[in-house]
Amino acid sequence: MELxxxxxxxRLLDVASGSGSSAILAAREFGCLAAGLEYSxxxxxxxxxxxxxxxxxxxxxxxxxxAEELPFADGSFDAVLCECSLCTFPEKLxxxxxxxxxxxxxxxxxxxxxxxxxxxxxxxxEGALATIACVGDALSREGCVDLLAxxxxxxxxxxxxNADADALAERVRDRLRASRILGLESPADAPxxxxxxxSLLGAARRAIAEDALxxxxxxxxx
Length: 222
Prior knowledge:
By secondary structure, the chain is of the alpha/beta class.
């Protein structure tokens, strides 16, 4: 939000808004009017409840929808935020073109996501387990820049956040190890078990150290 210089009174769309925390933060700390779009109706309800509890019921609203078919008119927003979600979209170019469509001319996009050099990834970070970990369909930095350009968005800046990605992986690893020591089992609906998750995290941290895997923030302008 700081990188795209979000200003009071601007209209922000958070694509794949999840729990709503970023849209709520944008309204509370930047003074903007925030809309969040999320595929899960349960997440939409929970996010709106959190916004209302924060006293932001007139500044923040959430709707159910698909990033590849945004339910908003052309040029509706001054800025768009999309965090750690592009790698999960089946039709990434379609989603970015939709983001461009709903941005006003000169509007800004802040996009953060996992980035990967697929040629250098270890075998553990390929296949179904890697997809669960948001690595399986991640693009390279160059791939993200190319895709943004094809969608009609001009990249303004790229900021690497690999150190943050490694720190997050380390914290998750520590929590998983603690769970195993305490004899806690993975929830029945968990996509993978603790041992598989620890194996993935180990491979991910090695890949981050070798700059084959990372996290980056891209800003772009319509």
